[in-house]
């Protein structure tokens, strides 16, 4: 038998060089002087914004808010050219952050973590990479993202297709030219809805295969308004604070209690104002009860359906595009620019694949029932194995070799959405059962990295080695998360929030729906209470 190894190679291993990994590295290495290795599968920094290079990819929370807040000089100096920056600009921003804080030297690119195993005897993680490297660390921080493992579609035959297959979530760096081509886009989630107007402009023919129509509403993009930006930058601290104290992590403050407490005319005025302002205002800054009360939700769903019908000239296409059968906001609401107008082109068609699903991809196209739609290029905008997929892909094993996949057989269980019982010293940045994807991601990420690094600091100050949630704390958090979810309309709908986009995945709400302020207050109490619910040894 080999000798037990008692000393780590580094203090912390971090996975991912997106928003989470970059900030974690800076904080651990530069602010806490802890030795840190970062592994990143891509060839450079950027995470989501490295991979998702499809035409039209951009953020849908205003960039002045969808950005790091941790460094005052950084947030003052960086200028966004548009209200909602496009993918290339967000990537340039993250590259700038990497340069500014000299981060690349501690990131190993082109390397995937394929094993993360807890060593009970030495209280260390052993991290294996696909290049054969093995690194032992005291802590492991996953910044692997929530939407980074593409879903494998239910239909087969993709390999037999003789044309080109593109995935929105892994778009070629050299881009794609659709000029003169017959193109199929499969999927009308946020990615498909952003890409379709651009593909429609170039393609000779575009066929959109839609399973579920979406409640897409206007993004309202435009050049940055220099006066508005100057005003925000003068008060950036306060603005960030207001954002962190809002359900979604944006500094909106016009929300009214109930859509049902006002008459139809007043509701229409409110919805019009939010629709015209664009962004997430309609969703999150109109009426508080739309996610909780079906009748309130119906008022906004009717409004959006009407607006969609106004924009689509062909009534048959409009009928296909107007969503029915589920409540607005129970699937992640996409924001759009010229999406509905794209269907006013004669060259753009929509095929409903709800009633008759896609059977397979053939050598020449997409087969639905008896018909093959012949195309030159297929774009898969079919989504992700969200939240848990990126963690499962790393083969994480906790105490006694327990695989995370086994522990989460019936759905994810966590404490505060950041740590897991029997998986000590493992931090999941924006993990399942945290506000994560329903909280402005850069701020959600900063909060979680700060929680993890504060916990590490707390242990170090006290000469302790290990932090792990108790089973009771984990159970209570799971019950609370589910209770809150069950008060909303979300569980009724098949969405990736519920794990329902992946056949066979356990149905469970992946997100803490109590909102960022309540979540942050709970975390603060836990810390003030000496990490209540955690076992520290
Ligand atoms: O993925 P999705 P996405 N046959 O899962 C359809 C974030 N994001 O990449 O709804 C036919 O939402 C599927 O149909 P259905 C954002 O959080 C943000 O678009 O399952 N269709 C659906 O229409 C977002 O929510 C931005 O019935 C099939 C689509 O494919 C998340 O990423 C931009 C199918 C998948 O939609 C994921 O968005 C982009 C099949 N077999 C993404 N399988 C921003 O703006 C799946 N579909 C910041």
Automatic annotation (TrEMBL):
The keyword rRNA-binding does not apply. Its cofactor is FAD. Signal peptide: none annotated. One of its GO terms (molecular function) is oxidoreductase activity, acting on paired donors, with incorporation or reduction of molecular oxygen, NAD(P)H as one donor, and incorporation of one atom of oxygen. Gene3D superfamilies: FAD/NAD(P)-binding domain. The keyword Transport does not apply. Belongs to the FAD-binding monooxygenase family. This is Cyclohexanone monooxygenase. Keywords: FAD, Flavoprotein, Monooxygenase, NADP, Oxidoreductase. The lineage of its organism: Bacteria, Bacillati, Actinomycetota, Actinomycetes, Mycobacteriales. It comes from Rhodococcus oxybenzonivorans.
């Amino acid at each position: 038998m080999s000798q037990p190894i008692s000393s780590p190679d580094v203090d912390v291993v971090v996975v991912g060089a997106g928003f989470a990994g970059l900030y974690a590295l800076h904080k651990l290495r530069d602010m806490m002087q802890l030795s840190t290795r970062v592994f990143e599968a891509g060839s450079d920094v950027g995470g989501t914004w490295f991979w998702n290079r499809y035409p039209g990819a951009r953020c849908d929370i205003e960039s002045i808010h969808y950005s790091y807040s941790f460094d005052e000089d950084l947030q003052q100096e960086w200028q966004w050219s548009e209200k909602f920056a496009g993918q290339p600009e967000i990537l340039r921003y993250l590259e700038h952050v990497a340069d500014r804080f000299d981060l690349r030297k501690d990131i190993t690119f082109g390397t995937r973590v394929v094993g993360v195993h807890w060593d009970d005897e030495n209280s260390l993680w052993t991290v294996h990479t696909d290049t054969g490297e093995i690194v032992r660390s005291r802590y492991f921080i996953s910044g692997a993202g929530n939407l980074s493992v593409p879903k494998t579609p239910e239909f087969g035959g993709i390999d037999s297709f003789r044309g080109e297959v593109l995935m929105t979530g892994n778009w070629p760096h050299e881009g794609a030219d659709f000029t003169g081509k017959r193109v199929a886009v499969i999927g009308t989630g946020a990615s498909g809805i952003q890409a379709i107007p651009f593909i429609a402009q170039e393609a000779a023919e575009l066929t959109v295969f839609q399973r579920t129509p979406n409640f897409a509403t206007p993004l309202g993009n435009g050049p940055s308004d220099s006066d508005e930006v100057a005003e925000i930058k003068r008060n950036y601290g306060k603005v960030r604070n207001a954002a962190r104290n809002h359900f979604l992590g944006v500094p909106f403050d016009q929300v009214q209690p109930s859509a049902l407490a006002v008459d139809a005319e007043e509701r229409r005025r409110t919805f019009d104002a939010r629709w015209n302002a664009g962004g997430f205002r309609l969703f999150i800054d109109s009426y508080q009860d739309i996610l909780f009360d079906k009748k309130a939700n119906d008022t906004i769903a009717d409004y959006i359906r009407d607006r969609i019908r106004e924009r689509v000239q062909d009534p048959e296409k409009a009928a296909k595009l107007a969503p029915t059968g589920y409540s607005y906001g129970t699937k992640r609401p996409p924001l759009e620019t010229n999406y509905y107008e794209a269907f006013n082109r004669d060259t753009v068609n929509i095929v409903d694949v709800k009633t008759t699903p896609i059977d397979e991809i053939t050598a020449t196209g997409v087969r639905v029932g008896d018909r093959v739609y012949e195309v030159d290029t297929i774009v898969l905008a079919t989504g992700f194995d969200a939240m848990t997929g990126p963690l499962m892909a790393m083969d994480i094993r906790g105490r006694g070799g327990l695989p995370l996949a086994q522990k989460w057989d019936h759905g994810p269980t966590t404490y505060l959405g950041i740590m897991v019982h029997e998986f000590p010293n493992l931090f999941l940045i924006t993990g399942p059962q945290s506000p994560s994807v329903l909280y402005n991601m850069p701020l959600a990420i900063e909060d979680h990295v700060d929680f993890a690094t504060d916990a590490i600091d707390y242990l170090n100050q006290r000469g302790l080695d290990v932090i792990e949630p108790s089973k009771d704390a984990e159970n209570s958090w799971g019950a609370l998360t589910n209770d809150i979810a069950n008060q909303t309309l979300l569980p009724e709908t098949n969405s990736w929030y519920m794990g329902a986009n992946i056949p066979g995945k356990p149905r469970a709400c992946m997100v803490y729906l109590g909102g960022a302020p309540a979540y942050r207050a709970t975390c603060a109490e836990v810390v003030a209470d000496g990490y209540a619910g955690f076992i520290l040894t």
